[in-house]
Amino acid sequence: MSKGLTKRSENYSQWYNELVVKADLAENSAVRGSMVIKPYGYAIWERMQAQLDKMFKETGHMNAYFPLFIPKSFFSKEASHVDGFAKECAVVTHYRLKNTEGNNIIVDPDAKLEEELIVRPTSETIIWNTYKNWIQSYRDLPILVNQWANVVRWEMRTRLFLRTAEFLWQEGHTAHATKKEAIEETKQMINVYAEFAEKWMAMPVIIGTKSDSERFAGAEETYTIEALMQDGKALQSGTSHFLGQNFAKAFDVKYLTKENKEEFVWASSWGVSTRLMGALIMSHSDDQGLVLPPKLAPFQVVFIPIFKNDEQLAAISERINPLISELREKGITVQFDKRDSQRPGFKFAEYELKGYPIRVAVGPRDLESGQYEVARRDTLEKSFVAEAELVDYIENLLKDIQNNIFNKAKERRETTTQMVDSYDEFKKIIEEKPGFILAHWDGTEETEELIKNETKATIRCIPIEGNKEEGKCMVTGKPSKQRVLFAKAY
RNA sequence: CGGGGUAUAGCGUAGUCCGGUUAGCGCGCCUGGUUUGGGACCAGGAGGUCGCAGGUUCGAAUCCUGCUACCCCGACCA
User: Fold this and answer.
1) Directed axis angle between helix A390-415 and helix A310-329, to 10°?
2) A425 touches strand B (CB under 7 A)
3) A316 touches strand B (CB under 7 A)
4) Tens digit of pLDDT for each residue in A90-149?
5) Residue A464 carries which DSSP code?
């Protein structure tokens, strides 16, 4: 399982599939670029889901579910939106198969749909078509709805986790009476994402807005959180869009104000996807495998008994079962690996590969001494801890690991983020020491395009926080209001 | 869709140029034994339409033709 991991660690996507997903679906192009998420990987996604869902509910949202198939006619109402997605839609044209002679299954030509159905690439259109019926008065607003779902985007090129044809995500779609409120919602949700990324994934992010060319199709403003992976490439990890009245106008969603005036509603949408799992893997993993933040690890602690026979195992179990109960009462997730089919050394390596934050080894020797060997995944350090102190020690160590991997990631980002004032220096750094670059830009699409073509670096975002010093564009010398964030991106 | 590459057991591969025993090796898997505090060892064993279709030949993983899929680089993108 771990064969070749060290050598391949520079190319994360090479070993995800050995670790958490199985991607070998396709002899058939229809599932090209999809992925099977294995149980352990899915457990990580469930932890992420649970926390995000909690945060959405704490900010007043409720979950709903809308159909997978969207009639083509819905989809073509918002012009820039359809332009953005038209090239990557899977389309359902028939509803029946037919078994011909020789067991040859074909699509029944008589079963053609009158109107084709689009497999949702995102749900704005079907949701706004529905909101039209939900909204009449200012009393119906705001509508604060989220959906957990799968979507399909027929990308020309796929990358495991980062850009699969089908992916799992959450999409929030809100409707508001005023522009101000919709913008506040948009900003609130990007802050929720940033908090989740930093406090739970232990992944530092930079919040900002997208340039015109990178903005979501149909949005007036796109907020993003941008993270830096260990190889110096940036990953867009979550977005929140202020949609203005674009979808309200396209789907004719109006409400009556207190003054009995008819107005279009204002909208936001926001989402994060299983791409976050890719981000998590690429932020922290090392040559030994995954490193998971304790807050998202499916299991935070694993106990490995070291035994030669059933009597020894029974003696070990008797001593550590009360400890496990005590840990569980504190809300710590614990696994006790009693398998006799693998040797301890194999298990050590296996749990390191899977990123369990803490491993405790207990053998006859330790029962006598009353001290257990505790190993932490982030630093691979081991220490002996007295039985009486173990529960408190683990509780503190989990917090310590969570902080430590965040700080490590942040430090790494800071040492690979540079302020650059000349375009020559920019080109040199992008080539030699990839990472974030803060530089001045004249705000035009032409300059952005030029930089992209010459260096492959793109504007990841226009940061919201930090120094807002004015300056001159590093390419054209024209005035710039603030530095923007550049990087090569996934 | 353009450029490059690859396809041999569950995974990784040798063999292909120059056709010739029963297609070899490592990991993994199964059985037995010895082991068990950092990925155990010994012995035995199972597992292959050599991507698919056609052709050349006494004989094809190997040569020819066509097709398909995957990977990498671009364009596209959560």
Assistant:
1) 70
2) no
3) no
4) 888 888 887 776 666 677 888 889 998 989 999 999 999 999 999 999 999 999 999 999
5) S
